Amino acid sequence: MYLQTKNTVTTPSNLLGLHYILSRYAILLVLIRIYLTNSIFYGFMLWNLFLAYMPFFIGKIPITSKKILFLAFPVWLLFLPNAPYLVTDIFHLQQGNLMPMWFDLLLLLSFSINGLLLYFTSLKNFYKKVAFLYNQQIATLLIYSSIILSSFGMYLGRYLRWNSWEIISQPDALFNDVVNRVIHPLNHPRTWGITIGYSILFGILFWYYKNLKISATFVKK
User: Fold this and answer.
1) What is the pTM assigned to this prediction?
2) CA-CA distance, 166 to 173, in Å (whole number)?
């Protein structure tokens, strides 16, 4: 038996099952922790996971015209930061004695990895839709711009505690926070350190994910 590679394309649909398996595993870990500790401390992760699925499901909407794309894209972009935001929940890793730290780390990593899978799958779905309706150059520009904006959105959510829907409920306050950091970038090094750092990381990972076309299989000699 030897390892052989073949040119088969790994698409988001191939990974759809992995999303659901990881989601169930992460939810199971939360339920186990609640049962053993009588604490719902990590219960908020279930809500964060639900929000992480929002851009994924929006990206699954059939978009057959530029008009539909024009309407769907802003809504998708608004919810997009919720998927990679799960990575930042590792900040909640506790050092208490309710559960071993290895268990809490496993729980948080399960959610984080699932969030990244949802994120990159959603990005690729929209990349394909934009490329179909326009061209690959516009799709590349739009998606990598979305990565930068979603990284900035992660900062807004983690450090300024803004939520996606508050662009409607508190638009003035949110606008002021954003404009202040754009006009005075040197006064907010953490803002741009996080935004640029995660943009580069996610950009590299998305490029690899988008171009992943080789799968390995074992065959009998």
Assistant:
1) 0.86
2) 9
